[in-house]
Amino acid sequence: MAKKKQISVEKKLRSLFDLQLIDSRIDEIRSVRGELPLEVEDLENEIAGLTSRLENFKSELKDCQDEVALQKNNIVVAKEADKKYETNLKNVRNNREYNSIHKEQEYQKLEIELSEKRIREFHAKSDQKSLSIEEVQVKLDERTAHLNAKNEELSSIMSETEKEEKLLTKKSKEFSENIEEHLMSAYNKIRSSVKNGLAVVPVERGAAGGSYFAIPPQTQMEIASRNKIITDEHSGRILVDEKLAEEERVKMSSIFKKSK
Question: What tens digit of pLDDT does each residue of 27-51 get?
Fold first, then answer.
């Protein structure tokens, strides 16, 4: 089995910094999208909830309208019955029949009053449901317009950056395959533990990039010699010298231009 070709520490450092530049650019592209995908998802969920509420209110309004129609029909039936009893009164033969028919008429009048009361109640409920429907519809229209605007914004950003992100993601994978497993493991571990995702940083003004802790002159010389992998004792980040970092930035800028 052929042995893997040994590469110098300097090449390893360059490969790690190149990978960092690529991954940082991917992070930058994704940050442009920011919270937009989550905002879109939240709006979609809110619209689904509003749509459900609107359907419920419409269903409740129809129930109220059906009840009004039912009560109106009850009034018609009661009035017809009252007319019938009124006719029957002309043919009564004794007081008992008269009292019986009269009680039935009183009952029909109570039924009419009860139905009229229920109609007023259902009309009031209908008015409230109609108002609720109007309020929810206004909110739904507003949220839908907002969602459309957010989708357009997201679509615009995606169309501008999707191609670049795909190409850089492919490059990131290619570069990572050329880096030893234990170094990749360390790189990924550091990236996941820091907010800005920087696992490899240059020494700038005597300190690790983004840090205020001074690096001893002897350590700076060791970093500049590029003979071993050195990490920052405070952040754990892998350190490279400023000159190497600048050389790799210039080299990688052409890759970034091609990916756009």
Answer: 988 887 888 888 999 999 999 999 9
pLDDT of residue 1: 40
Which of 131, 160, 189 is the last residue in one of the domains? 160
Give the residue-averaged pLDDT of 132-149.
97
CA distances 135 to 45, 128, 129, Å, are: 18, 11, 10
Domain limits at 184?
9-33+180-259
Residue at 190 is within a domain = yes
Residue 60 CB partners (closer than 8 Å, separation 6+): 125, 129
Question: CA 107, CA 82: separation in Å to the nearest integer?
Answer: 9
User: How much is the pLDDT for 3?
Assistant: 45
Whether the CB-CB separation of 223 and 185 falls below 8 Å is answered with no
Question: What order of strands is seen across the sheet that includes strand 238-240?
Answer: 207-208, 200-204, 238-240, 230-231
CB 208 within 8 A of CB 230: no
Note whether 30 and 196 are within 8 A (CB): no
> Does residue 1 lie within any of the structural domains?
no
Q: What is the pTM of this model?
A: 0.58
Question: Residues 57, 132: contact at Cβ < 8 Å?
Answer: yes
